[in-house]
Structures are given as C-alpha cells and as structure tokens.
C-alpha cells in the first residue's frame, strides 16, 4: 500500500512510460523548465507583436485603420490556431510532443520575419519620404506572421495544462500548489512581456527592426532549449482519443433516443462497473441534473447490444455524457470573456495610437515609444500576481472559507469590473486630450505637449484586471474541463482572445464606415487630433458593463463538475 503513494495517482507516466514517481518527477522541480520556456516564448511573442502596429505603419506604409485591423486579425488567429494544437494533443500525440513540433514551426516563422526586416530584397526600400514595399515583400511578411500564428497554436493551449499536469490532483498538498502554479505561470508570461515592451520596443524604434525582431527569434530558440532540458523530470498525461468523436457520439445517441424517457433513478443510466473510466486519462464524472436531454444517450434500450458488443454511437456512459455537459456549461462563461478580450486588445491598437499623439520624452534626450507603455500593464501584473497569491488570497480565505479565497467565477467577475473602469479612465484621458487640442488649436501638431505617462493608469488597471480574469480563466477552464479534454478547453478559453480581437476589428470597421459618411473624418481618422477616440472608449465601457450584468446571471446558473472513481 505504501508503494502506491510513491507514484502519482492521476495516471501520469514518466519519460520512460512508467508510472510517474512522486519524488523524482513533476512538481516545482519540473515546472521551472516550463516556466522558463514560457517566459522566453512570451518574450519572443510580445517582442514581435507589441510594436507590430507601428511596424505595419512605418515599413509597410499602412494607415491607422488598416494597420490596427491587420494586427487584431493576426492576433485573433494566434488564439484560434490553439484549437488545432489542442485537438492533436488530447487525441493523439500528447501535450509534450505538440509543444515540441509546433515550437519548430514558430522558430521558422520568427526567422523569416527577421529576414523580412533585415535581408536586402525582402525588406522594403525606405527614404526620407517613407517606405515603399512591394507586393511580394508584404506577402512574405504576412507569411512569416501567420507561421508564427500556427506555431503558437501548439504551444498556448498545451503549456499551461502541461505545467498543471506536474501536480497530482489526487494529492491534497500538490493540488494546492497547482492553484499557485497558474499565478506564477502568468507571472512568467509578464516577465517576458516586460523585457519585450521596454527593451525590445526601444531597439525596434531606435536601433532597427532587424535587431528588434532578431532578438525575439533567439529568445524562441532559448525557449525550446529550456523546454527540452526538463524532459526527464516531466510527468506525461496519455492522450485519451478524439474528444470530438466522443462529443458527436453523445449527440448522435441522444438524438436517436429523443423519444426515450430518462429514468428518475440515475443508477439506471449506463456506466461501466469498474472504478476506472473507460476513457483513457479521465476520471469518472458524477451525473448532474442539468441538460437532461443528453442523458438519453446513457439510457439502455433494446438494440444497443449487437452480438454482445455495445456501439458508442448508440449507448454512451454517464461519464461520456457528462463530458459533453461540462463543455456546454462552459460555453456561457467562455462567451463572457470575449468583451474582456476586446478591451485587452486596445493595448496593442488604440492605446498605442493615442500614445503616438502625446509627448513621449523622458528628460531632454530620451523618448519612450508609445508601444512601450504596455510595460506598465506588465508591471501591474508582476505586482498584483504575488500580492494576490500571498496577501489577497489569504485575507479572502478568512472571510469566505473557500480554499482558493474566491471561487474562480468570482475572481473572473472582479476582473470584468476592473476592465470596465479601465475603459472609463481611457475615455476620460481622451476627453482631456481633445479639449487640450481645441483650447490651443493643436489640430495639426504631431505631438501635443501633454505627457504620455497620463496613460499609465489605464494600462495599470488592465493589468490588474488580467490577474483576476485571465488567470482565473486559465484555472477555471483547466479545473472544469473533463480530464481528457484539458488542452481543448484551454484552447477554448484562448479563443475568447481571438474573438475579442475579431470583435475589435468589426467594431472599428463599423464605427469607421458609419462615422465617415457624408465626408466626415470619423471617430478614428489618421489625424487623431481631429477624431473622437473617446466615443470609441465609451462604447467599449458600455459593452463591458452589459457583459458584466449578463455574467452575473451566468455565474448563478453555473454548476461545477464532480469527479468520482479513478483515472482510466
């Protein structure tokens, strides 16, 4: 019996495919390599993406609206491709190998992007009047960007789940550490982002884009090296087969039995007699009373057994039905994150364009690029993450009695409120800025004499909101996902960022089309001093408030999953 406690009880194995030994694998000694990987990978990503809107404007000669939409479309794609990597990880290859394979694609994309900014013939020709890129140069640049988008699709959904896999959910001490892991995981993201938004953005604007993109490419190579260095210490969760197939099996079986009545006694529903689930890498799930239509798939009727065998397209286990229910219950919570991600995307678009009009000087000789102000978002996250983990969480535990201080839904809700306040603060600053322009007739002045550091509060508030909403979302989607669908559910949470970026593109396009009618300049013209960016911020604040009210109703309705038995 004592020997059983030497090994992880969550079904994980070591690099030799043997049961994972608790003292020799996993926990923080393995996670330091994963956190190092994430820090360097995020440095590479943000080092390239933070200032991308300015690169498209300066080197590819794109206007405000075009550059902003291209950035949000690309960024959105970076958060859609994780669905591909997550499906392959959960179904066939496992998280480790998907991270490894897609990291190589990522490195190729970063190398090609560096070449488009530094190699003669691939980089646009520029003079004092600006740059004149050819169509082929634009195509190669976007090819590099979308290779990076594909590469990040294998890393984003898998690396956080892979890190959480290093802690045994069946061990109380390790389970508590897993909750802290998500906080420190997000902190490592922002340490990388801090270097990117400060040092690398300055290099891009003052030294050159070749160096500015080359350093992130090297960082990505270091990230891959860090990941492979910890291979012998990792715990590996075996892939459980196609989750999409299991979902469709429940849908087909329940539709076939749409006329069948579900018994009141849940013990009459079909489930395997073993303590283990028949789904590899998954615990059995307790029956829930919601979404009872899908229970029809677990009702045994004549014809389900053919030659003594059961077809999963006709009869599904309770656990398989509950997998689908878990996904369906996640969807409203998932949808509420889209507006938050739209607010978050402003840091790489409208906040930068707003900052481009302000005085960027720090002293007489040094100018801070407007995109570098995102470092205050990063500093906010770096400040609030340990404060939350070490102080707020402990205080909250005393009042709520909850193991995590707040429930995951409460934590995300607090972030939604903070994001609304951030948009109000950004709108107030823009009102003040425009009034200053009108009062001094600065309409055609490139930089108005108003410090860019007035933007710090809006960045700081978004960073604080991230600590509550994004980290809460990471933990929530991992914890509430069926065991064999964790990468897929992590990818699902990331798609809110994609849809938030796409929604931003849609809003900007609609606003631009509506407000430029009859020859008007519109809310977001190329000369921001003649526009009304404040109206756009008010629009986002109103949408955020409405989203929060809907979220409150969703939170009251949500039912947390309950696990029983052992992993299959």
Structural descriptors:
568 residues, mainly alpha, two-stranded antiparallel sheet, two-stranded antiparallel ribbon, globular
Question: Please, could you describe this protein's structure?
Answer:
Helix content is 62%, strand content 4%. β1 and β2 form a beta hairpin. The strands form five sheets. It has a two-stranded antiparallel ribbon with strand order 1-2. A two-stranded antiparallel sheet has the order 3-10. It has a two-stranded antiparallel sheet with strand order 4-5. The longest helix is centred in the first third of the chain and has 35 residues. The mean pLDDT is 85. It is mainly alpha-helical. The protein has 16 helices and ten strands.
Task: Kindly report how far apart the N and C termini lie.
Answer: 20 Å
Mean pLDDT: 85
Biggest sheet statistics = 2 strands, antiparallel
Into which percent range does the helicity of residues fall? 55-70%
Order of helices and strands: HHHHHEEHHHHEEEHHEEEHHEHHHE
Number of helices: 16
CA radius of gyration is: 25 Å
Oligomer: single chain
Biggest sheet strand order reads 1-2
User: Which regions are unreliable across 5 or more consecutive residues at pLDDT < 50?
Assistant: none
Shape: globular
**Number of E-state strands:** 10
Please indicate the percent range of residues in DSSP E strands (runs of 2 or more): under 5%
Look at the helices and sheets and give the structural class: mainly alpha
């Amino acid at each position: 019996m004592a020997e059983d406690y030497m090994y992880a009880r969550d079904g994980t194995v070591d690099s030799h495919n043997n049961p994972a030994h608790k003292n020799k694998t996993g926990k923080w000694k393995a996670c330091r390599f994963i956190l190092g990987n994430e820090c360097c990978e995020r440095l590479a990503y943000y080092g390239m993406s933070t200032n991308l809107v300015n690169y498209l404007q300066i080197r590819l000669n794109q206007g405000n609206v075009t550059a902003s939409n291209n950035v949000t479309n690309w960024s959105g794609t970076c958060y859609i491709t994780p669905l591909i990597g997550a499906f392959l990880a959960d179904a066939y290859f496992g998280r480790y190998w998907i991270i490894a394979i897609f990291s190589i694609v990522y490195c190729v994309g970063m190398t090609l992007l560096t070449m488009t900014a530094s190699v003669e013939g691939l980089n646009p020709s520029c003079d004092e009047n600006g740059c004149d890129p050819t169509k082929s140069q634009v195509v190669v640049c976007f090819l590099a960007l979308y290779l990076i988008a594909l590469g990040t699709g294998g890393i984003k959904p898998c690396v956080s789940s892979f890190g959480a896999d290093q802690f045994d959910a069946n061990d109380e001490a390790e389970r508590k550490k897993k909750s802290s892991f998500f906080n420190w995981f997000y902190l490592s993201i922002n340490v990388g982002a801090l270097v990117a938004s400060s040092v690398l953005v300055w290099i891009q604007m003052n030294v050159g884009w070749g160096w500015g993109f080359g350093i992130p490419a090297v960082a990505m190579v270091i990230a891959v090296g860090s990941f492979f260095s910890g291979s012998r210490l990792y715990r590996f969760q075996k892939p459980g087969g196609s989750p999409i197939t299991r979902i469709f099996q429940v849908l087909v079986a329940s539709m076939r039995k749409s006329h069948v009545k579900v018994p009141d006694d849940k013990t009459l529903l079909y489930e395997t007699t073993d303590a283990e689930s028949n789904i590899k890498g998954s615990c059995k799930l307790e029956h829930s009373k919601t979404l009872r239509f899908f229970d029809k798939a677990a009702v045994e009727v004549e014809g389900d057994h053919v030659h003594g065998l059961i077809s999963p397209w006709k009869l599904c286990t309770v656990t398989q039905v509950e997998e689908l229910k878990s996904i369906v219950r996640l969807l409203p919570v998932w949808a509420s994150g889209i507006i938050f991600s739209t607010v978050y995307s402003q840091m790489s678009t409208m906040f930068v364009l707003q900052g481009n009009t302000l005085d960027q000087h720090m002293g007489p000789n040094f100018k801070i690029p407007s995109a570098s102000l995102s470092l205050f978002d990063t500093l906010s996250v770096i400040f609030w993450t340990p404060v939350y983990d070490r102080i707020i969480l402990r205080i909250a535990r005393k009042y709520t009695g909850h193991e995590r201080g707040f429930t995951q839904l409460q934590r995300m809700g607090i972030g939604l409120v903070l994001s609304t306040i951030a948009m109000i603060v950004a709108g107030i600053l823009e009102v003040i800025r425009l009034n200053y322009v009108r009062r001094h007739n600065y309409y055609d002045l490139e930089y108005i004499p108003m410090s860019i550091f007035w933007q710090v509060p809006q960045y700081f508030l978004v960073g604080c909101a991230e600590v509550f909403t994004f980290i809460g979302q990471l933990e929530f989607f991992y914890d509430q996902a069926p065991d064999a669908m964790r990468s897929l559910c992590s990818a699902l949470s990331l798609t809110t960022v994609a849809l938030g970026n796409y929604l931003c593109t849609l809003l900007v396009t609609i606003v631009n089309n509506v407000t430029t009618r009859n020859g008007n300049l519109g809310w977001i013209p190329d000369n921001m001093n003649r526009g009304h960016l404040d109206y756009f911020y008010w629009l986002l604040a109103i949408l955020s408030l409405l989203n929060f009210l809907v979220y409150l109703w969703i939170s009251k309705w949500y039912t947390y999953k309950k696990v029983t038995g052992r992993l299959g």
